[in-house]
Amino acid sequence: MFGLGTQELIIILVLVLMIFGAGKLPQVGSALGKGLRNLKDGIKDITEEEMEPESKPAKLEKAKEESPAEGPGAKE
User: 28 near 20, Cβ under 8 Å?
Assistant: First the structure.
């Protein structure tokens, strides 16, 4: 993947354990998971907007055409 072997991963895990401590690891993992989830959702929203950029304006124009005239001179 990134050229990391088993020994390198063990060293990284030991360093993380020493920096954050055993009590903080669940909180760090939870925060990291939430951050990644938010990033994934944001990317998904952006790609959906890029796929349908004209759908919203077209819907607004269609709604304006179908809506009855409003205002002081409008008849019911």
Answer: yes
Chain-centre distance of CA 73, in angstroms?
Answer: 46
Q: In a 10 Å sphere around its CB, with 0-12 CB exposed, 13-18 middle and 19+ buried, how is residue 12 labelled?
A: exposed
CA–CA distance, 33 with 57 (Å, rounded to integer): 35
**Full-model pTM:** 0.47
**Residue whose structure tokens are 């409003």:** 70
Give me 45's structure tokens. 């929203």
**For residues 52 and 49, what is the distance between their CA atoms, to the nearest angstrom?**
5
- Which amino acid is present at 53? P
Between 64 and 7, residue with greater pLDDT: 7
